[in-house]
Structure formats: C-alpha cells, structure tokens
Amino acid sequence: MNWFEDETFWREFYPVMFPPERFAAASQEVDQILLLTKPVGPRVLDLCCGPGRHSVEFAKRGLSVTGVDRSAFLLGKARESSDAVEWVQQDMREFSRPGSFDMVCCLFTSFGYFADDEENQAVLKNIHASLGPAGVFVIDVLGKERLARIRQDAICTDHPDGIQWLQRPRICDDWTRIRNEWTLIKDGHARTFRFEHFVYSGRELKDMLLQCGFSSVRLFGNFRGNPYDVGAERLVAVAQR
Prior knowledge:
Layout: H1 7-17, H2 20-37, E1 43-47, H3 53-60, E2 64-69, H4 72-81, E3 86-89, E4 101-106, H5 117-130, E5 131-141, H6 144-150, E6 155-158, E7 164-172, E8 177-186, E9 189-198, H7 202-211, E10 216-220, E11 235-240
Helix pairs in contact: 2-3
C-alpha cells in the first residue's frame, strides 16, 4: 500500500492538518485564486480536494464545482460540508474529463506523491486535457527554494486539544524528494507514519507544465500574486491551456 492510500493516515492527522483556522482561511484564498486566475467560465475542478474546504467556497460563489479525492474518509468530511458540489472518489492519475473545466486547482501540496515522476507528469497531462479552451490551472505546493530556507531537523507543535505533532523531514535522492516521519502524541500514546514525495523548484515545476502542453506558466509566491522570489511563502503556478 502506498502511504497516501492509507485511510488511517488521513484519519489520524486530520485534526492537525485541517484545524478550524485552515477552513476559515479558505474563503479569502478562493477570492485570491479567482483574482489571480480570472477563469473564463464557471466550471471548476478541485483535484485532491480533501475535506472540500476550497470546493465549498467556490460553490458558494455560484460556480459549478467538482471535487475529486481518492480518500473515502476525506470525501466523507467534504460531503458533510456541502451538497452543492459534485464529489468524486477517484485517483488523480485516472480522473480525466476532456474539455470539461474552465479552471482546475490542485492545492495544499497535493502533487508529487508518486514514486515514478512519469506518473506525476501523467496527472498534469490529464489536467491539461480536462481544461476547455482558454482554461487555466493553478497549483500550490511548498517550493524547493523555500524548503531549503526553512527546513529543520525536527519540528514539534503543540495543539490546543493536547495533541503534540512531531515532524522529522529528510531530504533525499539528490534534493528531488523529501522523506517525512510524522508522530502524533495524544493521551500518552504515539502513532508514527512515514511518507515521501517529490519537491520541485519553480523552474522544475514550470518546465513540467510546459512539457505537458500548457502554453504559458506564471509563478507567484502566494495567492496574492507576490513574486516567486526569496520571500516566497509558497510556490504557486498559474498555467494557461
């Protein structure tokens, strides 16, 4: 089983990955994404939508939204939030609806999970095919440049409900992948999960998008449209079909 197929991982880490303040931030993030991308129509695909925090906000703005995720647990949370979204349980490598969307989003570092990078490229090709004419794709990940600047050997976070979250990231494979060990401690009990995924620089992500058929790619340091420079908070790429 691949790490992202383990429902226990998503269930155990849900409280720390998706605290209330992260849901509260989604409304402003969606407004910023719409200003940044200026989609030509109302059809939106939220790929790897998780518990649907962005999907729901897009739907509140009158857009026609499809949220896709492979996790039954996370989609269950999403369905509790709204019945105005089409929720689809499917692997991102398999989901494709040619010409069906005006905008596709892949947010919150939900890309690069597959050990074979050709599979990650196949996801981008499916996204390109699923966009209609003048469609736009926005992807948000933790960029390699920022990771190099902020990386620590260990990060321990205390949460209000008494949970302690210990993260131990390791760079591997010549700075192409990050290997994580996450431990959750609550009520004297500890659960540890290990996972890894690709990390991309701005140049690497841009080249991948262009190679998959996108006509142009702009890079930003956040959803507000700040430059992707030394002060970048995130790596946000906006690609035109």
